[in-house]
């Protein structure tokens, strides 16, 4: 039976970060979770596990579980990327994963290569780990689509640079990098002796006409020096259950990762494990329906912006449920669109400035909500611009 993504679920009063941060009259379209209930088989599995009533420790990190097997089988099915179940490493999230990985791959004073604008917790990695940020701007075409600026990419790699922290699909610009682009990034990294940490958490949320390619799946010599991070959390809306995964095919690199995380970053909690197993086993049909709904929402946003938000521009994202709105020509909203839309439209977006260089004059809009919520938010933004 088709899932009802139009259904509005009240999230206030559930300790949701998205829905508790702002005043009750504000519509929140910011932090990257979805306003949809998770797939029924996931909810059922959690209910059964909760009914059991005993929540002692789960399996130790060194043990392969059904979750490891499911993830390895799925990577082979989707990408023909063969990894041993042992290569899958459980984590409480992707953010701790890329922090541990960078801390272990680079020493204080070394550099980490980043493509900006970029998801704020990735931007914080250099500060967290005592590293220098070697940033390469993405290039923005006249149609608003971003592509790697190869000159900037190569120039950002200096003698101190040790690791490239890739975000693919890219948050906030919504690109699912093409195979040729990834091949060129990988060739530069291999040529310059960099390790790769690939945040691929949005890899399941790719729209028609585009594909996700895990960078490590390109070739064994790329896989050997790559730590890939993924999760069921964006895909099936499980972020609060704190379940992330690293895929580290190289045994020596994996052992170093385990040593670096030991006793600091533990495993996934037992309910996150239960939900992840159910999602990977039974979640594909729901995901296919979700992608249809999100793609229609994406098209709705792009069309609405073009017709009804004068001065605002957006390129249709290849992937993610995030739209990166360029408001630099939007008259009264141009200087500070975040404050303008929050104050005048009562719509909470993410402030582009928090995404680093290239984010000034932009906001990020999360369209993973029922269409009625999205239409209401965009309507408020239209009226705010018209009234200003
Ligand atoms: C690119 C990216 N990485 C990581 C995360 C968060 O990962 P986690 O909640 O598993 O730590 C997000 C959430 O928005 C994200 O967009």
Give an overview in words.
- This protein is of the alpha/beta class and 388 residues long.
- The protein folds into 2 domains: 17-31 and 284-387, Aspartate Aminotransferase, domain 1, CATH 3.90.1150; 50-282, Type I PLP-dependent aspartate aminotransferase-like (Major domain) (Aspartate Aminotransferase, domain 2), CATH 3.40.640.
- Helix content is 40%, strand content 15%.
- It has 15 helices and 13 strands.
- The strands form 3 sheets. An 8-stranded mixed β-sheet has the order 2-9-8-7-6-3-4-5, sandwiched between helices.
- Strand 4 and strand 5 (146-148) form a beta hairpin.
- Helix 2 runs antiparallel to helix 12 (270-282), helix 4 (94-105) packs across helix 11 and helix 14 (337-345) packs across helix 15.
- The chain is globular and about 60 Å long.
- The mean pLDDT is 97.
- Residues 32, 93-95, 119, 167, 171, 199, 201, 231, 233, 239, 244 line the site of pyridoxal-5'-phosphate (PLP).
Put the structure in a nutshell.
By secondary structure, this protein is α/β, with parallel strands linked by helices. Helices cover 40% and strands 15% of the residues.
CATH architecture group name of the largest domain: 3-Layer(aba) Sandwich
CATH topology of the largest domain: Aspartate Aminotransferase, domain 2
Structural class: alpha/beta
Instruction: Count every helix, treating DSSP H or I runs of 4 or more residues as helices.
Output: 15
* Distance between the amino and carboxyl termini: 45 Å
**Strand-residue proportion:** 15-25%
Number of domains: 2
Task: Spell the H/E element sequence.
Answer: HEHHEHEHHEEHEHEHEHEHHHEHEEEH
Mean pLDDT metric: 97
CATH class term of the largest domain: Alpha Beta
Number of strands: 13
Main sheet properties: 8 strands, mixed
**CATH homologous superfamily identity of the largest domain:** Type I PLP-dependent aspartate aminotransferase-like (Major domain)
Task: Please tell me what the overall shape is.
Answer: globular
Strand order of the largest sheet: 2-9-8-7-6-3-4-5
Instruction: Kindly provide the radius of gyration, computed on alpha-carbon positions and rounded to a whole number of angstroms.
Output: 21 Å
Low-confidence stretches: none
Described by its quaternary structure, the protein is single chain
């Amino acid at each position: 039976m088709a899932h009802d993504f139009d259904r509005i679920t009240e999230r206030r009063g559930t300790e949701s970060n998205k829905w508790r941060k702002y005043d009750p009259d504000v519509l929140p379209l910011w932090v990257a979770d979805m306003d949809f209930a998770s797939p029924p088989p996931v909810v059922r599995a959690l209910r059964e596990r909760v009914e059991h009533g005993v929540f002692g420790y789960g399996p130790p990190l060194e043990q392969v579980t059904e979750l490891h097997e499911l993830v390895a089988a799925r990577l082979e099915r989707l990408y023909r990327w063969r990894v041993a179940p042992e290569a899958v490493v459980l984590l409480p999230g992707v953010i701790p994963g890329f922090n541990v990985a960078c801390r272990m791959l680079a020493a204080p004073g070394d550099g980490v290569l980043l493509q900006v604008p970029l998801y704020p917790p990735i931007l914080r990695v250099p500060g967290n780990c005592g590293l220098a940020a070697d940033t390469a701007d993405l290039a923005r075409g006249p149609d608003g689509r971003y592509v790697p600026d190869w000159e900037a990419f190569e120039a950002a790699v200096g003698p101190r640079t040790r690791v490239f922290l890739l975000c693919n699909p890219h948050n906030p610009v919504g690109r699912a990098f093409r195979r040729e682009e990834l091949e060129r990034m990988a060739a530069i990294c291999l040529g310059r002796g960099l390790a790769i940490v690939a945040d691929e958490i949005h890899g399941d949320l790719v729209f028609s006409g585009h594909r996700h390619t895990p960078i490590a799946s390109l070739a064994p010599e790329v896989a050997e020096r790559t730590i890939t991070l993924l999760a069921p959390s964006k895909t099936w809306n499980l972020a609060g259950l704190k379940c992330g995964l690293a895929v580290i095919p190289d045994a020596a690199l994996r052992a170093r990762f385990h040593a670096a995380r030991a006793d600091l970053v533990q495993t996934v909690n037992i309910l996150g494990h239960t939900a992840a197993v159910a999602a990977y086993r039974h979640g594909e049909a729901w995901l296919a329906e979700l992608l249809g709904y999100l793609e229609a929402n994406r098209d709705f946003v792009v069309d609405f912006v073009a017709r009804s938000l004068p001065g605002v521009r957006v390129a249709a994202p290849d992937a993610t449920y995030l739209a990166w709105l360029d408001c630099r020509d939007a008259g009264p909203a141009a200087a500070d669109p975040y404050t303008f839309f929050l104050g005048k439209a009562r719509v909470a977006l993410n402030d582009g400035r928090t995404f680093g260089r290239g984010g000034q004059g932009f906001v990020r809009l999360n369209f993973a909500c029922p269409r009625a919520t999205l239409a209401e938010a965009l309507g408020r933004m239209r009226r705010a611009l018209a009234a200003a």
